[in-house]
Amino acid sequence: MAVATNNFDNSTEVGQGGYGKVYKGILLDGVVVAIKRAQEGSLQGEKEFLTEIKLLSRLHHRNLVSLIGYCDEDGEQMLVYEFMSNGTLRDHLSAKCKEPLSFAMRLRIALGSAKGILYLHTEADPPVFHRDIKASNILLDSKYMAKVADFGLSRLAPVPDIEGTVPTHVSTVVKGTPGYLDPEYFLTRKLTDKSDVYSLGVVFLELLTGKQPISHGKNIVREVNVASKSDMIFSVIDGRMGSYPPKCVVKFLNLALTCCGDETDARPSMAEVVRELESIWHMMPDSDIISVGPVVTNAEKVATPPSSSSTVKDSYASEISGIELVSGVVPSIVPR
Prior knowledge:
- The structure is a single chain.
- This protein is of the alpha+beta class.
- The chain has two domains: 10-83, Phosphorylase Kinase, domain 1 (2-Layer Sandwich), CATH 3.30.200; 89-292, Transferase(Phosphotransferase), domain 1.
- Helices cover 31% and strands 15% of the residues.
- It contains nine helices and 13 strands.
- It has helices at residues 46-56, 89-93, 103-122, 183-188, 193-209, 220-229, 246-259, 270-283, 286-292; strands spanning 13-16, 20-26, 32-38, 67-73, 76-82, 128-129, 138-140, 146-148, 155-156, 170-171, 190-191, 214-215, 218-219.
- The chain has a five-stranded antiparallel β-sheet with strand order 1-2-3-5-4, covered by helices on one side. Strands 6-9 form a two-stranded antiparallel ribbon.
- The longest helix is centred in the middle third of the chain and has 20 residues, at 103-122.
- Residues 8-285 form the Protein kinase domain.
- ATP binds at residue 36.
């Protein structure tokens, strides 16, 4: 890893977070990678490190970031990912961004992100609750395809008991990022798939407004709700994205607010979110679609499976997380 980054030279640093710094590296076989290197005293620890390895070594989807390898020796902990040349979604929504994303591009990113999370909720076995969906955890490749990243806080969804009943939630210590955190999860400590739906809804509002979830004491969900109820929707839309189809923007904003509803049961499942986004995409003018490139719709299964929070049962408590994944089997991925 030292060779790949010229001994972690400052010129190769591309980001920084609670875990440590992220570097751009080139492996001996020429593959360009992102190397996340833990720093002493980092906010994330051994548990999150192992969770990320064990989850990403078995999760594979075009809208999830790929783990190439890891290093855990000589006091160093590093995760090696495919390199995302266009950084994070948060970077592109910043006021400092010189080339703002068009509405069509934002909608495409929203759909890709939703499909990645849909895979976690319905196709991963067992399903996974991400628990930290936010704009800085959605990465963009060279073609601006969205890829969900950072699984350090993820938890396994409840599995059916002997009677075949799926518990409604996982009871767990509250973790996540302020502004994105599902208020019901915060109050009850009950984590469900709808907690991810809420967080993604906040990301949708960021895409539409360009604002951060919490800024100058203002909460984006509250501010957009007020604008919506006052028929002032377009006053909060990010003017930097240029022209846009008003009907598509309104439908997207209404979906975002529905995702951010206070009551868990009133929020859509991720399958319903994907279906609605595809519906909005099909409403877009052909010229806008051509400018950003096609998206895969209906080719991936988007039939509405039951939400993991839809079957009723008594409260269920579990401390199983990614660390206990695959019954303690050592991940098949090989360190590089």
